From TrEMBL:
Residues 186-212 form the C2H2-type domain. The keyword Zinc applies. It comes from the Eukaryota. This is PRD15 protein. One of its GO terms (cellular component) is nucleus. Residues 38-152 form the SET domain. GO terms for biological process: regulation of gene expression. It holds the Pfam family PRDM2_PR. Keywords: Metal-binding, Transcription, Transcription regulation, Zinc, Zinc-finger. It comes from Rhynochetos jubatus.
Amino acid sequence: CEDCGKSLIGECKLHGPLIRAKDRVIPSRARLTLPHYLTLRVLELRAGNQQILGVFAKKVIQKRTQFGPYVGQLSTKLTRYDESRLVLQVLKDGGKYFLDTPNEDCGNWMMFVRLARNQEEQTLVAYQHCGEVYFTTVKPIEPHTELKVWYAADYAKFMEASAVFIKEESDVCPLPPVAKEPVDPWTCSTCRSTFATFALLESHQCIHKDRV
């Protein structure tokens, strides 16, 4: 204790315990690689407080946007299996290897993307190129939409999978959906017509000015 100048085992009875300062928690490698226009959300809580995460868009992502490559460890055996994620394999040096991500420090954000159960919710397609796996958007992705992936046609044959995966809903405890902020309509001060965006209102007002 620097106050009483004594070497003690445990706390100082006169001056009490030290104030402990904790180190800052560092996000995992996978979370740090998440692009700024994407975000992670907790979708489900399973036994043992296991969190099921999903990747969501924060702004509009254009069609034909490519993400990747997928970062994982090449392995002859799959050490980590999650029924909500795609199993990925690559062909390298004549051998077929799994792209394994045993923990978040061994992969990138693409490990959080969940598989699509049907064509309607599929926003990404997975394919192999030069020994790497990439995801590419197959449609424009609107804000608050989850990114979901399935195999491209040729890659599905390589993975010995069907063209589209259809899965029944599991007995899980989903969290309440994140409520979107209400959007107030823009109202014309002349005729009281309402518009979804300011640009439409501004165009409408120009018509009034022309008439005047």
